[in-house]
Amino acid sequence: MSETIARLRIALSDSDPEIWRTVDVPLGANLRMLHDIVQAAMGWQDHHLWEFEVAGRRYGRPDPHWRDGNLFAASNIRLKALVDRGVGQFGYTYDMGDDWHHDIAIERVEPGQPGTEYPRYVGGARRCPPEDVGGIPGFENFLDAIANADHPEHQDMTDWHFAGYRTAFDPDLVDELAARRRIGTIVKRRAAGKAAYAKQQSG
């Protein structure tokens, strides 16, 4: 029997042209796993704080040494609970300094395809910004600088990006193979967790 999945569209807010990804996610996934899926699909490196905003509540990874009574554990709520509540759209913010806000829309809920493992990368457009580039304004300046050899920051920005990524930056390129590979790691981790749980139950 196939599991039920949600088709999610993840768009980087205020990006123009829009940077977006589409993924299929099992309803049993909690928001902690969805964080990993967003990171993998977009191409972020998971170096910074993050949180989801759902119907006026914030979900993330509470710090035991820094109490925040308004931040709930993302691991304690599943995507199914959002669907059951009728939530159709919610937010995700990565890196509170650069403030990368994402709009996540639940496009549809349907049975998964037999024999297909989830989560699954479906598609997307345009490359994710580099980490620590300075949010949308910094990213726009970065794009201007690397595209224009006469820009006063052209060499600095080009060198800075290459030092961190070892590749030139092509804003139109989505490395779908890498996205699928990263999400494949989540699939394997999920399968291992389910196998360990089944073994525990049978023992």
UniProtKB/TrEMBL annotation:
Q: Which residues form the Plasmid pRiA4b Orf3-like domain?
A: 5-175
Signal sequence range: none
Q: What Pfam families does the record point to? A: PRiA4_ORF3
Q: List, alphabetically, the PANTHER family matched.
A: LEXA REPRESSOR-RELATED, TNPR PROTEIN
What is the recorded name of this protein? Plasmid pRiA4b ORF-3 family protein
Which organism does this record belong to? Answer: Sphingomonas oligophenolica
What is this organism's lineage? Bacteria, Pseudomonadati, Pseudomonadota, Alphaproteobacteria, Sphingomonadales
